[in-house]
Amino acid sequence: MIRHLVILILCLSLSPQLLVARTFTNIKGQKIEATVQSVEAHQVKLLLDQNGKSYHVPLTSLSPADREYIQAWHETSKKGRDADTQAAAKQNFDAPWPKLVSIDIDIEIEIVEESKESKRFVYHSPNYAFICDVGLSKNVVKKFAVLFEATRDYCRLLPISSMKAHVPGAQFRHKILLFESKSAYVQNGGPPSSAGVFISRGGKGVIMAPLTSLGLKKVGSSYMYDYKGSNETLPHELTHQLTDNAYFQVGARGWFSEGLAEYVASTPYRSGKFMVRSNLSAIKAYATGYGKKGKGGRALGTAFNAPNLKDYMLQPYNQFTANANFNYGLGMLLTYYFFHMEDDRSNITSFLKALKEGKKGEVALQVLLNGRSWDELEKQITKAWRSRGVRITFQ
Ligand SMILES: [Zn+2]
User: Fold this and answer.
1) What does the angle CA 365 – CA 366 – CA 370 come to, to the nearest 5 degrees?
2) Structure confidence at residue 229 (pLDDT)
3) Which of 14, 24, 223, 302 holds its CA 20 to 30 A away from the CA of 115?
4) How far apart are CA 147 and CA 232, in angstroms?
5) Domain co-membership, 14 together with 160
């Protein structure tokens, strides 16, 4: 039901789904499916799946896990609003494209809370709050937090003025909910086939992930960092969390919002460094084939047919995700085209500015076209990618 879509899920999984509700359990053990609408002093307003009606429920009547979830929901929505206001000032559309993003991997970790009773362990890195259901050593948090901090810095340095990536951690820390078991991750709303997910709560979203996705391995009774190989899921979901709400608007939602996340996730990464200047071959390999080392590519092939560009860019999001591999792959190639293959970035910049001004759909896309017909734009995209060895035939 449309009015239930308060929480939207944007994920990398091959069978994406819309998360509309959570199972809440009261202290008597009774369960209900509902969606949080707002939080007040001692009560929460829940929209019940069963009948579509809203109810005020005292927080004390809910299980500790539910209260924790509601508190996290409340904090992200409130701080997100404050952060948006404070960040509205500085835009970076005119900055040069980064060639290399490199952070100091010796990052500071603060232990904020470690409560065995309530199974709540909170660790802060400069820009993230990791909320975990099991205790972790400071050293382990420090190691996996590097990927998060580097992805944030990458999104901050991209000259697309995505202001969520510019808010200092002291003002607002992005929330990451971590689960020791895959089943707890799924119970809390993680899609079973996914390794991590971004849940947008009116645009002030959280990331959820099982510990295994962070490269953690249980040794005895504690966790060790055992990172092997690439991790495309987390940078993809983190990019969603750092992308301004306007860029999820109709006209950009899908081809650009997913294309941008794929662009970031496909950029070669190692130990706190994104090698942006060498991302063309990695992006091409990921879109056309099966990715580096045969992992997780979009498998479009180097010659393929594509739908009419206008229809593709304006298709509903559920249709976009229903054919995920193709649509995500093409979205990344188009995003790359607008970032790097036009004479300058003025068209994509004007388009993003138009979205920020509240334009959407066809009106926003007219700004991207900048006087060209759809046919002309298709021809320019085809020509640009053909010279890099990818043949796209628009219908
Ligand atoms: Zn996504």
Assistant:
1) 115
2) 58
3) 24
4) 11
5) yes
Residue of higher predicted confidence among 331 and 227: 331
35 sits in which H/E element = strand 31-39
**Using an 8 Å Cβ cutoff, are 93 and 160 in contact?**
yes
The CA 260 to ligand 1 mean position distance, Å, reads 9
Residue 238 alpha carbon to ligand 1 centre in Å: 9
Q: Does the pLDDT of residue 168 top 70, yes or no?
A: yes
Q: What is the pLDDT of residues 53-91, one digit of tens each?
A: 788 888 888 888 888 888 877 777 776 666 555 555 578
| Final residue before a domain boundary, out of 243, 259, 279 | 243
* DSSP sequence for 250-319: TTTTTHHHHHHHHHHHHS-EETTEE-GGGHHHHHHHHHHSS-GGG-S-----SEEEE--HHHHHHS-HHH
The single-letter DSSP state of residue 373 is -
Same domain flag for 42 and 132 = yes
CA 160 to ligand 1 centroid distance, Å: 18
The structure's pTM equals 0.77
Q: How far apart are CA 175 and CA 77, in angstroms?
A: 11
Ligand 1 centroid to Cα of residue 29, in Å, is 35
Higher pLDDT, 120 or 54: 120
**Which of these three, 213, 243, 273, is where a domain ends?**
243
Expressed in angstroms and rounded, the spacing between residue 185 Cα and the centre of ligand 1 is: 18
Same-domain status, 266 and 237: no
Q: Are 338 and 349 in contact (CB under 8 A)?
A: no
Residue 19 and residue 147 share a domain: yes
Ligand 1 centre distance from Cα of residue 150 (Å): 18
**Ligand 1 centroid – CA 13 distance (Å):** 8
Residue 136, domain extent: 2-243
Same domain, 84 and 136: yes
Please, which residues bridge with residue 23 across strands? 33
CA of 245 to the centre of ligand 1 (A): 14
What is the count of structural domains for the chain? Answer: 2
8 and 156 together in one domain: yes
